[in-house]
Hints:
Blueprint: H1 5-15, H2 18-29, H3 36-57, H4 72-81, H5 88-106, H6 122-134, H7 138-158, H8 163-166, H9 172-186, H10 191-205, H11 221-240, H12 249-262, H13 279-283
Helix pairs in contact: 1-2, 2-7, 3-5, 3-7, 4-5, 5-6, 5-11, 6-7, 6-9, 6-11, 7-9, 9-10, 9-11, 10-11, 10-12
Amino acid sequence: MERSVTKLLSRAESMGGIAAAMREWQLRHDDTVRTNEDMDARMRQALAVMRESVTQGLDPKTRSVSGLTGGNAAKYMAAALTGRTAGGSLMGRVCARALAVAECNAAMGRIVAAPTAGACGILPAALLTMQEEYGYTDGQLVDALYVAGAFGLIIANRASIAGAQGGCQAECGSAAGMTAAAVVFLKGGSPRQQADACAFALMNLMGLVCDPVHGLVEVPCVFRNVGAVSVALSAADMALSGIDCPIPCDEVIDAMRQVGDALPSTLRETGEGGCAACPSMCKK
């Protein structure tokens, strides 16, 4: 199951859902937990950290040590709450929170790597805003975290979640896929639709390079969290609309791995290409 979405879906069918299948897998493979309650307690702790990181990131005084980022999440949230964003309130709040967590990370705050620090804002932004908008309980968000974790596990084992190995598609792309599946779960979509949403998100971010300015997880990383969470929601909506992904999720993950392997070293977290090589960034 840990390497195949097809096997995950088969297991989910017999277990009553992806969250249940992931709980069962975790119990068999993690010697540090003995019960579902132990695992759920960890998930609730992660959820609490996610909330704290949003709060810290939305503080207009938040700044990274380098000074490259910080304070922008507060601007975005203010715009979303006063009707100044083109995407409306829900999308605006999601994007503001994604930026907030990423800025919190850049300011050396505590975050949940979901699945990495560079992509830390995508999943919490979507889940917490969905809760705010639709009234989901923390218990439902915990189940959504298991769903996200199941897809993240498969992507990590079948391809990569490391920017240095596969580019930012492996970080923000993977997080978007995990998030899209979790959102579909919260909205009542089937395991198959959750897999389709993950595949759509990965497909739409395939080829995204990793090009951190000055070698820091700040520019363009924090802003890519905003773009990726937008992709995650649109991918979820496609699946929820009944649109089937024409390519199986496992094959999309394989394609992502192949694209990552083909990326030149300058575009895999070395800071030698892409945005990192822009003249204005090289001067600072």
